[in-house]
Amino acid sequence: MVCSCHNRITQHPCGHKSYKKTYCSAARRRGTFCPNHAITTVQGTRTRCRIAGCQMSRVYCYWRCCHCRQGPNTANTCMCSLRNNAGYIYACSHTVCRDCVYYER
After folding, report:
1. Tens of pLDDT along 72-89?
2. Of the candidates 23, 41, 40, which has an alpha carbon nearest to the alpha carbon of residue 32?
């Protein structure tokens, strides 16, 4: 009998992970995966995180930074460019928060 145990891990843009677990009938009886279960990891590009309070889900993974007022940002950290008083360019690096807003095109 072929085992149908499978763990699908989705890595969301916010950094959180979600899991979809499927167990074969023998594993359901034991309450744990079979030793040879399959694991698939996928990168969620626009999939919404299901964790309560996730700021990236609130802005639909497309946001304007409240610190530098730039966007769009699609990762959980702002990578927009800023220039300091000496003229050096650096990344904003602000992490999405409750004050950041959805980026309107």
Report:
1. 988 888 989 988 888 889
2. 23
| Furthest C-alpha separation in the chain | 68
pLDDT tens digit string along 22-47? 888 888 888 888 888 888 888 876 66
Q: What are phi and psi of 22, to 5 degrees?
A: -125, 130
Q: Residue 5: what are its φ and ψ, rounded to 5°?
A: -65, 135
Burial of 103 (0-12, 13-18, 19+ CB in 10 A): middle
The structure's pTM equals 0.55
CA–CA distance, 102 with 61 (Å, rounded to integer): 8
